[in-house]
Design goal:
Elements lengths: L4 E10 L2 E11 L4 E5 L6 H9 L6 E6 L2 E2 L11 E4 L11 H11 L4 H14 L15 H13 L5 E5 L7 H16 L3 E5 L3 H7 L2 E6 L2 E6 L1 H8 L7 H18 L2 E5 L2 E5 L5
Parallel strand pairs: 3-8, 3-9, 6-7, 7-8
Antiparallel strand pairs: 1-2, 1-4, 4-5, 9-10, 11-12
Helix pairs in contact: 2-3, 2-4, 3-4, 7-8
Bound molecules: adenosine-5'-triphosphate.
Length: 270
Amino acid sequence: MTPIVELIDVWKSYDGVQALRGMNLEVRRGEIFGLLGPNGAGKTTTLKIIVGLLRMDRGIVKINGIDIREEPYEYKRLIGYVPESVSLPDYLTVEELLVYSGKIRGVPMMHIKERMDYFVKIFELEDKRRTLIASLSSGMRQKVAIVSALINDPDLLILDEPFIGIDPMGQHILKEMFGERVKDGKTVFISTHMLDTAERLCDRVAVIHRGQNVASGDLKDLQRLSRTGEDATLEEVFLRLIEEAKEMSMEKPIKEERKGFSIFFRRDAP
Ligand code: ATP
């Protein structure tokens, strides 16, 4: 089956900072997929390129088999995106924002209303419907951003660090909601540092380091690739893979001059 997300040899630099160095990634339809990596590994950059907020320097990104450079607009209808730092218009009420968010994505008013009623209730925002965004707590704003991303019932829901700042009940609701979506054949793609949660929640993960995919698969695949044994936790596997990736980039650097910058490749991602 065509993957819902496919990245092939994607490169991105910010004014000389090489954030992605040939990123390869495959997310399958109907799974919860986790993007894991240390600070600065390139998770947010990867997600922003996928949703069209950043332009890659080179490489291919396909959403549902379609190259996003060839069809830069249409694919966005399939996506709901919640960034790491949520920024919402303070001058709208929760309800106004959600209606606006649905309308700009061409969702019929009837569906906007249905989804708004459903998600506002499950995220316990019922009594905030007519409250200005400016008066919400940061966790509430994040929940509103999540509901806004869900208003077009996206095939692909992408969330950058979704659990940070949300209370335990909200986190529980979020995880349940992810499970319901994948049961319906939809896809949830998150980045997270919460390895315990990722181990319980994600069907497959990718561990990335310095802008490359070091290893991806389910826990069994990663235990095998990292040679940590079948009882190893995702945290143990992650630490081993990152340690090895660091050693590889120190010990066996292959130097390549690219646009005037020296970069170091580690081994190819399995
Ligand atoms: P974290 O876990 O800390 O959120 P991350 O894996 O999401 O990190 P990115 O935010 O994608 O990592 O950053 C990857 C690299 O790109 C880092 O070296 C970072 O300093 C750099 N970077 C990211 N955004 C910018 C920017 N706007 N300008 C310059 N460099 C940037």
